[in-house]
Amino acid sequence: MKQLYEFFPIVLFFIAYKAYDIYVATATVIVATIIQVAFAWFRHRKVEPMQWITLGLVVVMGGLTLYLQDEQFIKWKLSIIEWLFGLAFLGSHFFGKKNLIERMMSASLSLPEAIWKRLNLMWGCFFMAVGFINLYVMFNFSTDDWVTFKTFGVPGLMVLFIAVQMAFLYKHIPETEK
Fold first, then answer.
1. I need a labelling partner for 135 at 20 to 30 A (CA). Which of 4, 81, 145, 176 fits?
2. What is residue 31's predicted lDDT score, i.e. its pLDDT?
3. Among candidates 126, 120, 125, 130, which has minimal Cα distance to 169?
4. How far is residue 24's CA from residue 14's CA, in Å, rounded to a whole number?
5. How many C-beta atoms surround the C-beta of residue 65 within 10 A?
6. 59 CB contacts (<8 Å, ≥6 apart)?
7. Contact 28, 42 (CB under 8 A)
8. Any residues with CB less than 8 A from the CB of 100 and at least 6 apart, and which?
């Protein structure tokens, strides 16, 4: 259910784009993201920092897309979000006792510090790479292709990356936890 909640704006963006155009899709994703954040607030009385950042970027970049009638702004949003995630992971090596991936997963997994660092670095590099891949797609392919990449390609890359991570982690999980 949580995955549907997280993909709600993306799915509506795709449907609106296929039914109408990039501008209707952009307006749709703005409204859907506002609803998503409002729902999180009313349900949990808390909104995660990345949800606020995403909302801000969707409203600003989507608003510029609609106001200036220039689809490049909404396309740039994906790269900016991915780069922010990447910077958060990479920057977490320098702040606190645990990096970001260790903070997220250490309650359920015990790994040596070197593995946590490598895993965190891999996540940071993954997000940075997806941001650059988005630039490549947006500047070398049609808007139709970009929408398909955003809707299916990025989640597909994430699933593939998680599978690689699982294979990497499996080698390092102590026998007692397997």
1. 4
2. 97
3. 120
4. 10
5. 25
6. 30, 33, 34
7. no
8. 88, 89, 92, 120, 123
Q: Is the predicted pLDDT of residue 95 greater than 70, yes or no?
A: yes
DSSP 8-class letter at 176: T
State the number of CA atoms in the 13 A half-sphere of 117 facing the CB.
8
Which residues fall within 8 angstroms of residue 115, CB to CB, at 6 or more apart? 169, 172
- Reading the block at residue 23, the tokens are 């501008």
Per-residue model confidence (pLDDT) at position 72: 97
Tokens of 62: 């989507």
Whether the predicted model's global pTM rises above the 0.85 cut: yes
Paired tokens of 177 = 């936890």
CA distances from 39 to 32, 46, 176 (A): 10, 10, 40
Tokens of 148: 């398909």
pLDDT at 10: 93
